[in-house]
Design brief:
This protein is mainly beta. It contains 1 helix and 3 strands, in the order ββαβ. A 3-stranded antiparallel β-sheet has the order 2-1-3. It binds adenosine-5'-diphosphate and magnesium ion.
C-alpha cells in the first residue's frame, strides 16, 4: 500500500536578527491510508510549524531551506 503522506527530512527555519531559528530540524514520517497520527512534544518543539509546513502555510519570515 502507498503512503498517503511521506515526509522526508522536513526542515523549516526562521531568519531572525539574533540568528537562524531551526524550528523544524529534519523530521521524517509516513502516514498510511486509514491511519490517524498524533504529534506530541513540549511547547516550542515544532509541532505547529511542522504541520503548517506541509501546506506551505508557516508564517513569514519562515522558509524551507
Ligand atoms: N515567526 C517566528 N519567528 C521565529 N521563530 C518562530 C516563529 N514561529 C515559531 N517560531 C519558533 O519555532 C519553534 C517551533 O514553534 P511551534 O511549531 O509553534 O512549536 P509548538 O507548536 O510545538 O509549540 C519555536 O522555537 C518557536 O519559538
Ligand atoms: Mg503549537
Amino acid at each position: 500500500m502507498e503512503p498517503l503522506l511521506d515526509v522526508k527530512g522536513l526542515r523549516t527555519e526562521f531568519a531572525t536578527g539574533e540568528g537562524i531559528v531551526h524550528a523544524v530540524n529534519g523530521i521524517s514520517y509516513t502516514v498510511m491510508p486509514g491511519e490517524a497520527v498524533g504529534l506530541v512534544g513540549e511547547s516550542g518543539c515544532g509541532k505547529s510549524i511542522s504541520a503548517l509546513s506541509l501546506l506551505n502555510l508557516f508564517p513569514k519570515p519562515g522558509y524551507i531551506p
